[in-house]
Write a structure and sequence with these properties.
Blueprint (H helix, E strand, L loop, with lengths): L1 E10 L4 E2 H8 L6 H11 L3 E8 L2 E4 L8 E8 L2 E8 L4 H4 L3 E7 L8 E7 L5 E8 H9 L6 E3 L7 E9 L5 H4 L4 H9 L11 E17 L6 H9 L6 H16 L25 E6 L4 E4 L2 E4 L9 E5 L4 E4 L5 H19 L10
Parallel strand pairs: 1-13, 11-14
Antiparallel strand pairs: 1-12, 2-12, 3-11, 3-12, 4-5, 5-6, 6-10, 7-8, 8-9, 13-16, 14-15, 16-17
Length: about 350
């Protein structure tokens, strides 16, 4: 049976600094906002730790008005502009925007800002606050609408340091004794005397969704046909999560993963012994993962995202955005099917009508 298992990775929470993660994981039940964030983090089954320069906001109050708020964002030497129109964010603009405040208040630039809008009494009230990562996460989930001007890719590019899984264990519990994280905090120079030039360790928590594509031929068994028609494949979410960790580690070779899964896709607990013949993974988020050999480009429309691919023949590859993996394997399998037909003595004829 020729089966392609396509798996997309989705964030369960906005990428978050290790500092904020440590604060949230200790959240008491009586703090509903932090508790909800903790539950979002604990919905993850896979996570990536990366490093990136801290994006900071610079409010452009002199250019903003009730109809549109304007911010500049700076990441190292790169800057770009963000427009927040009131018309497409009515939940937060209320009767018109009233302004922007930094957190802490009064700073020229800050990692987090709060938006204010006029309520029915004409009072300026805060409606939403966000870091840059939270802003992008809200937009990806269609909770917020913005326009960005100039190149913002440095703000969504993370140098991958570690990939891990948390199958059968809450992510917030997983980090109680994380030796690789301790090494990162010691060895990675993430704190700079210059606030807007500092770097952060960022945690990206993911969950998965998967679907199977099947190619059936005249040589397919009755069992193959039944599985394809019923969708009853021998594949479990735990297998997929464990295999995804191996694929990402094998593909990106993160600095702090001691086990590198050099024999991937061979494994005892991944997908090698499942009904899937080919397994590939895409990041369904506006994220770029940087590693030694290049970048893994994520995109909500995964046809335009990179993919890490493994198959039972031992073949592995990183497909670039836009490269059609299913078509590539369909052609490969059709060629094999055609060869088998010839070996069996079948002939191909063409009729002129």
């Amino acid at each position: 049976m020729n089966n392609i298992l396509e798996t997309n990775l989705h964030l369960t929470h906005a990428p978050i600094s290790i500092k904020d993660f440590n604060r949230i994981k200790k959240a008491p039940v009586l703090d509903p906002e932090l508790w909800n964030e903790k539950e979002s983090l604990d919905n993850a089954s896979l996570y990536i730790i990366g490093k990136r320069e801290v994006p900071v906001f610079v409010p452009r109050r002199e250019m903003s008005d009730e109809s549109c708020l304007i911010l500049d964002a700076e990441v190292g030497k790169t800057s770009f502009r963000i427009f927040i129109p009131a018309s497409t964010n009515s939940k937060y603009s209320l009767n018109g925007f009233a302004g922007i405040k930094t957190e802490p208040e009064g700073l020229e630039k800050a990692q987090k800002v709060w938006l204010f809008a006029f309520n029915d009494k004409g009072e300026a009230v805060s409606t939403i606050g966000f870091t840059f990562d939270e802003l992008i996460y809200y937009c990806s989930n269609d909770w917020f609408q913005i326009f960005m001007q100039s190149d913002f890719t440095p703000a969504i590019t993370y140098e991958v340091l570690y990939v891990g899984e948390c199958v059968g264990e809450n992510l917030t519990q997983r980090f109680k004794a994380h030796h690789a994280l301790q090494d990162m905090l010691i060895e990675e120079k993430v704190i700079s005397p210059s606030f807007d030039k500092s770097e952060e360790l960022i945690l990206m928590p993911f969950t998965i969704d998967s679907y199977m594509c099947t190619m059936l031929t005249g040589f397919s068994s009755e069992n193959d046909w039944m599985k394809a028609l019923t969708g009853d494949f021998d594949v479990t979410p735990n297998q997929i999560n464990l295999d995804a960790e191996k694929a990402l580690v094998h593909g990106m070779n993160p600095k702090y993963n001691q086990i590198r899964f050099k024999n991937y896709p061979l494994s005892k607990d991944g997908l090698y012994k499942s009904d899937a013949s080919v397994f590939y993974y895409s990041i369904a988020e506006n994220i770029i993962l940087k590693y030694d050999a290049g970048n893994i480009t994520g995109c909500p429309e995964t046809a335009f995202a990179s993919s890490i691919v493994g198959d039972k023949d031992g073949y592995t590859k990183v497909f670039v955005p836009g490269e059609d993996k299913a078509e590539w394997y369909a052609k490969k399998w059709y060629t094999e099917h055609e060869k088998r037909m010839i070996e069996k003595g079948y002939t191909f004829t063409c009729s002129d009508g």
